Amino acid sequence: MEFWNKELETLKSQKLRQLQLERLKKTILRVYQKVPHYRVKFQEAKVKPTDIKHLEDIHKLPFTTKEDLYVDYPFGLVALPVEKLIRLHTSSGTTGKPKAIFFSKKDINNSADIIARCLVMTGAKRGDILQNSMTYGLFTGAFVMHYGAEKVGILVIPAGPGNTERQITLMRDFGTTMLHITPSYALYVASVILDKGIDPRKDLKLKRAYLGAEPYSEETRKKIEEMLGIDIYNCYGLTEMNGPGVGFECKYKAGLHIWEDNFLMEVINPESGEPVKDGEIGELVLTTLNREAMPLIRYRTRDLTRIIPEPCKCGRTHRRISRILGRSDDMFIVKGVNIFPQQIEQVLMSIKGVAQNYQIILESYDEMTVKVEIDKELFDGKIERLIKMKEEIIDKIRSATMVKPKVELLEPGTLPISEGKAKRVIDNRTI
Ligand code: ADP
Ligand code: ZN
After folding, report:
1. At 417, is the secondary structure helix, strand, or coil?
2. What percent of the chain has pLDDT over 90?
3. Fewer CB within 10 Å of terminal CB in the chain, N or C?
4. CA distance 429 to 431
5. Atom of ligand 1 nearest to the CA of 93
6. Segments in 73-217 forming alpha helices (H)
7. Is the CB of residue 318 less than 8 Å from the CB of residue 16?
């Protein structure tokens, strides 16, 4: 098993906690001195930096929410003078307006170092060729991965998303061994490769892909792994915490390691703000422990997950979280039932004959319509097969969500293709 920084990655738990505490104290002191917004918040909560003596004392500190990032926008939470900042990124704005995040030179180096750990953890090394099909631009996804891969000595093809024909040409011409791509676009690219009669196992050199930026299920992972004959690793991150690499799977693909020397993680009950019991599902809250330009304290990610407390077989001591179950903002309510789009995705991807694209349409609070593309051959066959398929989808979604959906079966290519983050739920409800 390869390591990028074996000493840090396998640091004994007690030492890791010590390092976290040192870094936490330093971070708290810095924001108290440098960021008026935090000083005021700490004073309101009647807590001083010297009150933080143990890691558990973090509970005394107030949360930082997405809304706090708009206070004194855009430089409000920055802890360095502008001349020390070298990069701006904003979140992709899936929900609400974009949030500005700044990096110092040290932050850029550090985020690349984190990615280097992640990539090496999956077996990537010099000689690999990474096709980076995430969006280059304000979004962190492509840049942070790009710098990290270069740090390992991997050849990076900055393809960006879209132009699927060209993506495939690049793969063939340059012998791409790894992809960094969203799950929704990966499904599409895989289907185009197969439609063209290319045998990915023989005609391409692809070995692995890093899929992230949006939630997806184990079923989707398996489906793409089988289509392309590769290993898929889950890659989690958010702009507010540097972007990709906050959580990353190792070769065992059993949860995502969080680099605890860089992030202090908590999982809380989103309603009460209290910590959940070890291993229970809740909202992930992160504190940066090693960030210069824009430290964030107890940042509410809105992403739902649970900590996997058991040690990992790979030997890394940094704890893991489960695959993100959804973001609380994604949840929608039909007939009084809370539903996450991933519950529907999971059902669809487990059904044979379902193709790569689907959409959930909400017109009223009593009904949801699931539009789903299915394999072309099914439309050429007997009508009974289509009826059976529709019934199977309705039944399985009903048992997963407790709401009986309307289902429309569509030919492949009917729904809009997503190249970046997919928009799976179209909510047309006005009140
Ligand atoms: P936005 O909130 O505008 O989408 P980002 O582009 O920073 O901003 O996206 C970060 C969010 O994307 C995360 O908070 C999470 O909800 C989602 N995300 C990123 N990677 C994954 C992943 N591997 N699995 C599930 N969700 C993910
Ligand atoms: Zn591991």
Report:
1. coil
2. 86
3. C
4. 6
5. 3
6. 105-121, 140-152, 164-174, 183-195, 200-203
7. yes
Cβ contacts of 193 within 8 Å, gap of 6 or more: 168, 200, 204, 227, 228
The C-alpha atoms of residue 211 and residue 232 are separated, in whole angstroms, by 7
Distance CA 167, CA 169 (A): 6
Tokens (6 digits) for 273: 């703000």
Q: What is the distance between the alpha carbons of residues 254 and 4, in angstroms, rounded to a whole number? A: 20
What average pLDDT does the structure give for the chain? 94
Would the pLDDT of 95 be above 70?
no
Q: Is the pLDDT of residue 97 over 80?
A: no
Contact criterion met (CB below 8 Å) for 132 and 170: no
User: What would the pLDDT profile of 123-134 be if each residue is shown by its tens digit?
Assistant: 999 999 999 999
Closest ligand relative to 259 C-alpha: 2
Question: How many Å apart are CA 149 and CA 132, to the nearest integer?
Answer: 10
Yes or no: say if 317 and 10 are a contact pair by the CB < 8 Å rule: yes
CA of 46 to the centre of ligand 2 (A): 39
Rounded to whole angstroms, the Cα distance separating 216 from 424 reads 11
**Cα–Cα separations (whole angstroms), residue 415 to 159, 162, 184:** 24, 16, 12
pLDDT surpasses 90 at 381: no
Ligand 2 centre and the CA of 248: distance in Å? Answer: 9
Domains and CATH numbers, the chain: 1-329 (3.40.50.12780), 332-427 (3.30.300.30)
Strand, coil or helix: 131: strand
Instruction: Take residue 426 and report the two structure tokens written for it.
Output: 């179209």
Q: What was the pLDDT predicted at 186?
A: 96
Gap between the Cα atoms of 368 and 427, Å rounded: 10
Dig out the tokens for 393 from the structure: 């989808």
Tens digits of residue pLDDT in 190-226: 999 999 999 999 999 999 999 999 999 999 999 999 9
The answer, as to whether pTM is greater than 0.70, is yes
Helices (H), 215-355: 218-228, 341-349
Decide: residue 43, CB within 10 A, 0-12 exposed, 13-18 middle, 19+ buried. Answer: exposed
CA of residue 291 relative to chain centroid, distance: 20
Residue with CA closest to ligand 1 atom 27: 214
CA 334 to ligand 1 center in whole angstroms: 24
